[in-house]
Specification:
The protein is α+β, with helices and mostly antiparallel strands and about 425 residues long. It is about 45% helix and about 25% strand.
Length: about 425
């Protein structure tokens, strides 16, 4: 017992030290980003003055808060903060004027923003926001970004705390729980920054997450903006209280920072936290790549059906496309569950307009179909005509239906029969590719 207690912290420390060395962007990378960003900002400022637009530019996101982690590509957030005299519906068009000649692509959203490919693996996301005095004046969630950046910069002053946030972001990113997008439903960057600050460290954060009872809510109010927990539950919009962890935004007490965190993502994350605490390893910080071939081989050994599907959408890539593709995937899971025991499944979407799904399943031998009540004579007659074997329980008819089709046959048939539904869900193409 004492040996374990002495050796564990040392092992964890060495793991985290090794991870930090790999997830922190190099000084060279940071310098290149700063230089490119500086040049881009000068052009923005020139266009702003030329068009006589009353606005100020500020850098947001992980780069501004010094919590950026090493990735294959970087998205740097640039906010154009417009004077509140401008109407909300004009902000995106005014931003387009400011970006004239800078080859920025307009991206549709609750308020349109812009994306510019600066160089190789560097992208700038230019977001119009309104200058507000109080959070209640916000007409869009992005209007709170200025307050978020300032709050985090004020709270995360030490390099030690910044490193702890980098560890948390790298851990969540590697395990598919980093991002508030609807196709991820995980922890936002701002949420992770607040949680690490609240718990004091990366280890404090994951230990706390591992102990949460999934059936109970944990409520965190860092600045104690509410009288008590019951007041929080009453004051916040009920639609924003579904997450297991309710984190009151320190800059706006009516907002739950973790509103996007789904039960499924949280439970998966919690399991990974427990696994890491049992046996710390650098591998927990490596982006997981699904080995489809290995999954296929294992399925064949056990005699299970294995299927890969590809779906495409005509919707805008990113959160909109991702949410449409995730929706059809979840719908397929529900449909297949009726006739198959699903042993494994997966949804793969990075960016773009396509996603892949895979299923490993074993067909059920029979299905019990619920029929009408015994006093519904016409319906009873039709049910008896359709089904040979009938049983009655609690004044209702039931029938056992024998199943003898494969997962591939089921999915092909479902896709053929549900073309209208697929189209209505925003999917332009769906096919079995393996």
């Amino acid at each position: 017992y004492y040996y374990i207690k002495l050796i564990m912290p040392k092992r964890v420390d060495s793991v985290l030290k090794e991870v930090l060395e790999s997830v922190k962007p190099s000084e060279k990378e940071l310098k290149e980003i700063k230089e490119t960003l500086s040049s881009f900002l000068k052009k923005i400022e020139q266009n702003r003055k030329k068009n006589r637009i009353n606005a100020q530019v500020f850098i947001g996101g992980s780069f501004a808060k010094k919590t950026l982690i090493k990735k294959d590509s970087y998205d740097i957030d640039i906010f154009i903060r417009f004077d509140k005299k401008y109407k909300d519906e004009l902000l995106s068009n005014m931003t387009e004027k400011i970006l004239s000649g800078l080859k920025a692509v307009r991206v549709h959203g609750s308020r349109d923003y812009f994306k510019a490919h600066a160089q190789n693996n560097l992208f700038f996301e230019i977001v119009p926001v309104k200058k507000i005095i109080t959070p209640k004046e916000a007409e869009n969630i992005t209007d709170l970004s200025y307050s978020h950046v300032n709050y985090i910069k004020k709270k995360l002053k030490s390099e030690k705390l910044l490193d702890e946030v980098r560890l948390a972001k790298a851990f969540c990113y590697a395990n598919g729980s980093y991002g508030a997008e609807s196709y991820v439903q995980g922890f936002s960057g701002y949420g992770l920054e607040l949680l690490v600050y609240y718990y004091g460290s990366f280890m404090g954060f994951i230990k706390a997450m591992s102990k949460i009872n999934p059936e109970k809510k944990v409520i965190i109010d860092i600045e104690k903006l509410h009288k008590n927990k019951n007041h929080i539950l009453m004051d916040l919009n009920s639609a924003k209280l579904h997450s297991r962890v309710v984190l009151v935004d320190p800059t706006y007490k009516q907002r739950n920072v973790l509103a996007a965190l789904s039960r499924e993502t949280f439970l998966n994350f919690q399991k990974i936290c427990k696994d890491f605490l049992k046996k710390p390893s650098v591998s927990f910080f490596a982006k997981k790549v699904v080995n489809i071939e290995k999954i296929k081989q294992e399925a064949e050994k056990k005699g299970y059906d294995f299927i890969i599907l590809k779906a495409e959408t005509g919707k805008q890539e990113g959160d909109i496309a991702g949410s449409k593709l995730l929706k059809i995937y979840k719908h397929l899971v529900l449909e297949a569950n009726r006739f198959f025991d699903i042993k494994a499944k997966g949804f793969e979407y990075e960016k773009g307009k396509t996603a892949r799904f895979f299923f490993v399943a074993r067909g059920k031998k029979e299905l019990i179909v619920s029929g009408p009540r015994t006093d519904q004579e016409k319906h009873v007659q039709r049910f008896r005509e359709k089904h040979k074997t009938i049983s009655i329980k609690n004044s209702r008819l039931y029938s056992r239906v024998h199943l003898n089709f494969t997962l591939k046959q089921f999915l092909q048939n479902w896709i053929t029969k549900n073309q209208k539904k697929i189209k209505d869900m925003g999917i332009t193409k769906m096919e079995i590719i393996s």
